[in-house]
Design a protein that fits this description.
Layout: H1 6-15, H2 25-32, H3 37-49, H4 56-64, E1 71-75, H5 81-86, E2 94-99, H6 102-111, E3 119-123, E4 137-143, H7 152-162, E5 163-174, H8 180-192, H9 213-218, E6 221-235, H10 238-247, H11 263-284, E7 287-301
Parallel strand pairs: 1-2, 1-4, 2-3, 4-5
Antiparallel strand pairs: 5-7, 6-7
Helix pairs in contact: 1-8, 3-10, 8-11, 10-11
């Protein structure tokens, strides 16, 4: 399944900014992930509107190669959405979920209440795993979260330390041009509104993406393999798209009331984006958001 086109490549070259936004640990904990609304919105849309018959968890399961008794550490476990689906494949194993945000961590704990697989929940930053023993996990996952970690290199070093020999560390991330259609409509609307320059930044995923992650991971793992896949979300109604769009905090974690931006700014932004998307739906039947994504599967930790 290949959604790549020369038109999308050209659009990305013109639309995706070279500078990216970096979310602070405090904002991630206290604002962006204070509750599960952002995660819930994204997860719902990716399941409901995807066109790839294989979900992200399907791809992840193939790379984890679980036998059922592994000890698994999920860095940035969020609301436990992925762990809930992995759990049947770890019936005789053990799960540890770590997240910096107590709100989403509580949701993960609640989601997994009553399952027989032992689960432990740790509140903390993924770049400091000092509470975990050396070589204590067979599998470690970092699912679309590494770009939020304050010190990526320290996190990768710690992951290599707690991974057992023969184990696997799976890091999922995107290409910088992933979801370019959404960025295009977003930045076009903001330009017409003469929005502040500091809002014109790329996703924080540019910190560690499919284009630059190999080098960062190779400093800590002797084996690093990249596995890519694509998906395309197709929205045939504008409201579900706007819900998905808002779940990305208007494509930039700085884009919210405060910092000199009034609520009316976002009302107008949402209306402009919605009008454009509705026009595309009226013309073509749906508005597409193309995902260029994948995983790095890492082994042979370097200590």
């Amino acid at each position: 399944m290949d959604f790549s086109t020369p038109e999308l490549d050209k659009l990305a070259a013109n639309v995706i900014p070279g500078d990216y936004f970096q979310l602070s640990a405090e904002d991630a904990r206290d604002r962006y992930f204070a509750d599960t609304r952002m995660l819930d919105g994204k997860q719902l849309a990716h399941n409901r509107f995807r066109t790839n018959p294989r979900s992200m968890v399907d791809h992840l399961l193939g790379q984890l190669a679980l036998s059922g008794d592994e000890h698994l550490l999920d860095l940035g476990c969020g609301n436990g959405f992925v762990l809930e689906q992995l759990r049947p494949h770890l019936a005789d194993g053990r799960i540890v979920g770590l997240d910096i945000a107590p709100g989403v961590l509580a949701a993960a704990r609640q989601r997994m209440t009553g399952v027989a697989t032992p689960c432990e929940w740790i509140e903390g930053s993924a770049d400091d795993l000092g509470m975990l023993a050396d070589e204590s996990f067979d599998r470690i996952t970092a699912i679309y979260m590494m770009h939020y970690v304050p010190d990526i290199d320290a996190c990768l070093r710690e992951a290599a330390r707690v991974l057992r020999s023969g184990g696997r560390f799976i890091l999922t991330t995107d290409r910088p041009d992933s979801m370019v259609e959404m960025f295009d409509v977003h930045f076009t609307a903001m330009k017409r509104m003469k929005a502040p320059p500091h809002l014109f930044k790329a996703s924080p995923k540019a910190r560690i993406s499919l284009t630059n992650g190999q080098e960062q991971l190779a400093a800590h793992f002797g084996e690093v393999e990249m596995h890519t896949w694509q998906d395309q979300l197709r929205f045939a109604a504008v409201q579900p798209f706007l819900d998905f769009y808002a779940a990305h905090n208007y494509c930039c974690a700085a884009s919210q009331p405060g910092d000199g931006l009034e609520p009316g700014f976002f009302t107008e932004l949402r209306e402009r984006v919605g009008d454009h998307v509705q026009h595309v739906i009226d013309q073509h039947g749906y508005f597409a958001v193309t995902k260029f994504t994948g995983s790095f599967v890492c082994g042979e930790p370097l200590r």
